[in-house]
Specification:
heterodimer, A: 6-stranded mixed beta sheet, 4-stranded antiparallel beta sheet, 9 helices, 10 strands, globular, B: 3-stranded antiparallel beta sheet, two-stranded antiparallel ribbon, 64% helix
Chain lengths: 263, 410
């Protein structure tokens, strides 16, 4: 895969990384029954970092980021998100979920609600925001992802790329400090991939902390400040994008890169 | 002026009726209609000719004749000196009574069992699976007979309540569970506003409707308040007040009194008698159809993709909100159409009442009246007309409801 998807000038100077820790994972393990999906994961993410997580399918990439907002439970180890430890305590889970936004491969927009209602649902019911205020907020973010004119349509009337941008706007309406992306472009046509990546780059330029599971190596090279390679439930290698692509250390990484960049 | 883009005009040929896609379906529809009309004409003529040959004619005059038989479970006044049409009306009300009761309880059973079957609690979900599999896989007629048999065999006879060393006692001195049925206290108004008790009850119904409208206003107000300030006010105390206060005041004014059943002679007198056959039929239809409804509910909830729940949870919504705001609106669309069929099934299956001697319309009009008058064709035609009308009405009402919850997706 090449860098074809991204054509615009990217302003990396705005993407500053602070010393403040946003996410800290120590010694995390997870099993599905007998199957050991995540093995001893240790990861520290600072505020403002853009991290791309790559790896073959079944390597535990999605499972790892889904553990960060408790969509999956981890059995061992410690996860601290934005200063709150993720335990089975509902209060902590609620707090973390309202600080962490997430976008899914299949968008998961609510088909029975309009685009605007999709965006205002959580601010109204979780943040207890007056409806007018929530709608203004939603329109602000819909303008940001460049689809304000679709606000009163239903998700089924939009293209895949538009739906994914709505999903991003929907997450942003909760004013998250961290965004998780679980293969946001895997279900999209090449043309639509570009519009979604553009939106994500804009977010990165605003200093959003981002963890992104993706196969878009162009995005990784130009936007990420760190690429993490996972295989068999372990973090095999992590490095700056230049180093990662030009000088991979482990054989497993080399093999993966030769396959993904080879054609 | 003719242009090149004009298609050449085909002249119509007879073979096009069969070979041309534009006419083909019309041709076949016309043929099918012709065949159907002819066969109905033949059957109708046949019926009339045969009836005439047998010296019979279709005549509904028998409906005004004296019925001459008793009905034990009745919602309106009836004696054996009343006409056949009155007996049919008693049966019709009994059918409606058991159908409405069973629809309500079957829905309650079904929704509870369907939701609990998806519970994370192993024991609860397995128990519900057991309930569903046992009850929907044994014919409802068997269930009606089993429950009726158990009631008549296990419950004490009224005479067991008699004497100094009675073997059975009334529950709270108000309810008697006997092998003839359950006797409960009858509420009535000592100084009602109207002479007739029925009108007084109508007044209660009107007041309840008023409360319902008021409760809706409160919900509208709460939503407006939430839209303005973000906080949804707690409407529970207000709703309780709206429902209870007018009701209690009305009961106090009209002097609500309870007439308790008491043992007189060989049986209990006074109060309300819910006959054994009604209980057996009601309960059997409820648990049997409830098992089917449970599966409909489960299917509806499971058909909403897991991604929907996850997306809602990731936004910080609590599970109850996820259910109410995201899952249920989508699940109802899938649950309601089969629910209509289940209600129709209950209504039609209630005709199995004849097995335990519950006097529904099939037992009165289609049973005793038919046998006494020999007017089989008339009785069955009336029965068919009744069930058809009832079913179409249920369908209509439920389809209107379905349209109101239908998703506007595009």
């Amino acid at each position: 895969m090449s860098d074809l998807a991204i054509e615009r000038e990217i302003d990396r100077t705005k993407m500053s990384v602070s010393d403040e820790v946003a996410i800290q994972i120590t010694g995390m393990n997870k099993w599905y029954g007998q199957f050991h999906v995540l093995r001893d994961i240790n990861l520290t993410v600072n505020r403002g970092e853009r991290i791309v997580i790559a790896g073959p399918s079944g390597s535990g990439k999605s499972t790892m980021i889904r553990c960060l907002n408790a969509l999956e439970e981890h059995q061992e180890g410690q996860i601290i998100v934005d200063g709150t430890e993720l335990t089975s305590d509902l209060k902590n889970i609620d707090k973390i979920r309202s600080e962490v936004g997430m976008c899914f491969q299949h968008f998961n927009l609510f088909p029975h609600l309009t685009i605007l209602e999709n965006c205002t649902l959580a601010p109204i019911w979780v943040r207890k925001m007056p409806k007018k205020e929530a709608e203004d907020l939603a329109m602000h973010f819909l303008e940001k992802v460049k689809i304000p004119d679709q606000a009163n349509k239903y998700p089924g009337m939009l293209s895949g790329g538009q739906q994914q941008r709505v999903a991003i706007a929907r997450s942003l309406c909760m004013k998250p400090r961290i965004m998780l992306f679980d293969e946001p472009t895997s279900a999209l046509d090449p043309e639509m991939i570009k519009e979604v990546l553009d939106t994500m780059i804009e977010l990165a330029e605003e200093g959003m902390t981002m963890l992104c599971v993706t196969h878009e190596m162009g995005f990784a090279r130009q936007v990420a400040n760190r690429v993490i390679f996972m295989a068999d439930g372990q973090i095999v290698e992590q490095n700056e994008p230049e180093e990662f692509f030009n000088n991979p250390q482990s054989d497993r990484t080399k093999q993966f890169l030769s396959q993904i960049l080879g054609h | 002026m003719s242009t090149l883009t004009d298609p050449p005009k085909d002249s119509f040929r007879l073979s096009m009726l069969i070979n041309d896609t534009r006419y083909r379906s019309l041709t076949f529809q016309a043929l099918a209609f012709l065949a159907l009309a002819l066969s109905f004409m033949y059957l109708g003529n046949n019926l009339i000719a045969n009836l005439r040959a047998a010296g019979l004619n279709i005549n509904f005059g028998f409906l005004t004749d004296t019925a001459g038989y008793d009905i034990s479970q009745k919602l309106v006044e009836y004696s054996n000196q009343d006409s056949h049409s009155r007996a049919a009306f008693v049966g019709l009300l009994n059918t409606i009574l058991v159908a409405v009761l069973a629809c309500v309880t079957a829905t309650v059973f079904g929704v509870i069992a369907g939701v609990l079957r998806l519970s994370n609690n192993w024991l609860v979900s397995k128990l519900m699976a057991f309930y569903v599999e046992i009850f929907r896989n044994i014919p409802v007629l068997i269930w009606i007979i089993i429950i009726f048999t158990i009631m008549t065999a296990v419950m004490p006879a009224p005479r067991a309540f008699r004497g100094d060393n009675a073997t059975a006692t009334m529950v709270f001195d108000a309810f008697a569970f006997t092998n003839r049925g359950i006797y409960t206290p009858l509420p009535w108004f000592a100084n009602g506003i109207f002479e007739s008790q029925a009108l007084n009850w109508l007044l209660v119904l009107v007041v309840a409707c008023g409360s319902w409208f008021a409760a809706r206003r409160v919900n509208v107000w709460a939503t407006a308040k939430q839209e303005a300030t973000g906080e949804r006010p707690n409407t529970l105390p207000m709703l309780l007040g709206i429902w209870l206060a007018p009701f209690l005041i009305l009961m106090l004014i009209m002097g609500l009194t309870w007439e308790y059943p008491a043992l007189k002679g060989f049986n209990f007198q006074g109060g309300i008698k819910i006959g054994g056959p009604l209980i057996a039929l009601w309960f059997a239809l409820s648990i049997y159809t409830g098992a089917f409804i449970a599966e409909n509910v489960r299917a509806g909830i499971q058909a909403v993709s897991k991604g929907q729940t996850e997306a809602a949870a990731a936004l910080g919504l609590r599970p109850s909100k996820v259910m109410n705001l995201v899952v249920l609106p989508q699940a109802l669309r899938i649950i309601i159409p089969p629910l209509i069929s289940q209600y129709l099934n209950i209504t039609k299956n209630s005709s199995l009442a004849i097995a335990v001697g519950y006097a529904d319309i099939t037992a009165t009009l289609g049973g005793i009246t038919l046998n006494q008058t020999g007017r089989a064709i008339e009785c069955v035609l009336l029965l068919m007309a009744f069930y058809l009308t009832a079913s179409l009405l249920i369908s209509l009402v439920m389809n209107v409801y379905n349209a109101s919850v239908k998703l506007k997706e595009r």
